[in-house]
Structures are given as C-alpha cells and as structure tokens.
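User: Please run a holo structure prediction.
Assistant: Happy to. Please share the sequence and the ligand.
User: Here you go; the ligand is adenosine-5'-triphosphate.
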Amino acid sequence: MQYDHILIRYGEMALKGKNIKTFIIRLQENIQQKIKEFPNAKVKRSQGRMFILLNGHEPDPVMEKLQNVFGIHSLSLAIKVDNNLEKIKEAALYALTKNEEVNTFKVSVKRIAKDFPVRSQELNQILGGHLLKNTEGIQVDVHKPDLEIKVEIRLEATYITSSVAPGLGGLPVGTSGKSLLLLSGGIDSPVAGYLAMKRGVQLEAIHFHSPPFTSERAKQKVLDLTKQLTKYGKAIKVHVVPFTNLQQEIFREMPEDYAMTIMRRMMFRISERVCENESILSLATGENLGQVASQTMDSMHTINEVTNYPIIRPLVTMDKQEVIQIAEEIGTYETSILPYEDCCTIFVPKSPKTKPKREKVSYYESTHDFTASIEEAINGIETIKVTDQEKVEEYFTDLF
Ligand code: ATP
Ligand code: MG
C-alpha cells in the first residue's frame, strides 16, 4: 500500500462550453511538459479531475513541480484501490497510520459510483469503526479533526486522500494567447510577467540593452529572470534590442526633460514591430501608477499614444510592498535587486517631465528623423530561447 497517485483539482467553474475543453487539454499538456523528467509518471483525465499515476516515482518532487502549474486549484496525494470494501478499509487505515501525531480523525465518503453497494453514510461508519478498532488512542472528531480521510468512490476506482495542498490557481498558460513582456532587470516587470501568465498568457519578452553602458551581466540578469519565469510555464523567447545608438540619439537631439518619454515611446514602437513579426496581440509591462516620473497618468497617456495594442499592466494598482512580496514568493526578487545598471537608469535626465504632453512630444519627434536608428535597432535584435532546463539555448534569428 502506498500513495501512488496525485489527484489534481482544477477550478473549472468559471468556464463554459468550448472553453472548458481548451482549458483541460492545455492543462494536461502543461502538466505533462512539467513532469517530463519523471518518465514513468502518467497524466490521466477523469470526470472533472486529473490524476498523476506515479508509477514508482517519489511523490514530493512531482508535487513540487505541479505546485507551479497555473490552472491547478489544489492537489492531494492519493491511494488508488479497486471499488472493494476490504481494500478501501485497508487503504483508509494506511492513510491514518502513515500520519504521525494524529489524535483525531474524520472519514468523509463521496460515492460517485452509485452502483457501489454501501451508501456514503453507512460507509463513513464502517470505516470509522474499522479505524478505531485497529488503532490506539485515536478518536473521531467530526468538527476539527487532525486528519480528514476522504474516500472518493468513482466509476473506475476508489481514491483515498488525507491532505490538500494549494495550487497556484489561474488559467493554464497558453489559453489566453500571447503577450510581449517589456522586461527590464528590475523588480516589477518579472512580477508583471508572472501575473500575466497566471491569466493564461504565454509570454515572449523584449529587453532594451545599451552596451557598453549596460554590461553583459545586466543582460544575463534578464535571462536569469526569464528562466525563473519559465518555472511557471513554457520556454520563453527573449528579444534583446541593441538600444545604444537610438538612445544616444534621443538624448542628443531631444530636449532633456522629454528624452525619457520619447525613449519609452521608442520602446513601444519597437515592441509593436516585434509583435507584428511574432503574431503577438498585446504588450505587458511592470508599470505602476504614480511610482516614478515616467509613470504618472500624463506620462502613460503620452507614451501610450504610439501604440493601439492592448497593454497589460498587472501592477498598475499595487503598492510597492505588494509587488515585492510576490517577487519574493516567485523567486525573482533576489536576482532583481542585483545592482547591475539598466538602460533607463544610466540615461536618467536630471528632471524628467512628470506631465509630458502628447502635442509637445509629437512636435519634438517631428523635428528629427529617427527612422534609420529604429531600423538599425530592429535589425540588430538577438533572440534567445530560454527554457527551464540547465542549458540556455542561444540562437540568432533573421526575424526582420
Ligand atoms: P521595473 O522594476 O520593471 O524595472 P520600474 O519600476 O523600474 O520597473 P520603469 O523604469 O519606469 O519602472 O519602467 C517601466 C516599465 O517599462 C518596466 O516595468 C518594464 O516593463 C519597461 N522597461 C523599462 N526598462 C526596460 C528595458 N530596459 N527593457 C525592457 N523593458 C523595460
Ligand atoms: Mg526599472
């Protein structure tokens, strides 16, 4: 007797019709992908649930992987037995005695297979009696038991579970299309990426890099952050844009207090071009209302003028402390606070406009032709595929 299955519950309540099918198929694929290093483990679907058949693998490392998969509501280790009273008794006793330091318990039977000859209520009593008779010093407590042994009699078999671990919730990555995440090396954008993924979004990332003002290590930091995000989904393509020339041109040709705003507009313009090439329909950023000069309402309004793509800003209403807490939970904080220079911080003007106006920016931009530098930046994009495996695959694309 052993815990040889993991039972997966998904909150499908909010989904209807065709969506539910897409959701389930994608969830199963994502789970399969995440546990592929356990070659004998199999994922099975059954009436509103999924099960992992462990086939000899240790449950804990598999559970750990599953706790990073979006779309899973909760998980339990389970013992699977035939729909046979003696087998069920034996498994319930195993579940109870396997847990040390249990003084009280309760049995909850759910009989989905209506042809099973004993009714739920009666089976509760039979199993309770069996457990009391075969243990010492353990009592029943129906209100606040140390351990609740759940017995689910399903059509194909009976599953016995005794603990529930929370899943991440959300929607399976890939069920909501793709978004291009503007990823800096800071605290915010990785968290924004994580939260977009939580809504089922598959990410690609774009990073604006300004060598030699920003170092190789700063770029590596962004790849490391991306790798951390792949823990919660699939491989992520990172488009690294050589931004130095364009950025210098902006700071040389444009009024200093508007340079920051114009730089952001360029980032969106270039991002949109990548989206067109990759068939991506939205952008995502770590922008937050009122944190810094570039994130006032006026500033967002002015920067946003250059694109009509939807922009997902999951952090827009959050306090910094809330963002930091998520960053710590998802494991990006440590990397984000490493002190490598960012392309935005090295060119920071002394007093950026906190209320930049669209008309003024458009006017300034019309006084200089940036086309050549924009095209040069786009043509120089290096695309790197980051996976959750050890190795970072690097390749150059001729995207444009
Ligand atoms: P973060 O912590 O994500 O760096 P921030 O609080 O520093 O954000 P800003 O510097 O104003 O805020 O940047 C706002 C958003 O613009 C970032 O969250 C990110 O989405 C995007 N961004 C900024 N710099 C870059 C960059 N070098 N490459 C790609 N995206 C960037
Ligand atoms: Mg930043």
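The radius of gyration is 27 Å.
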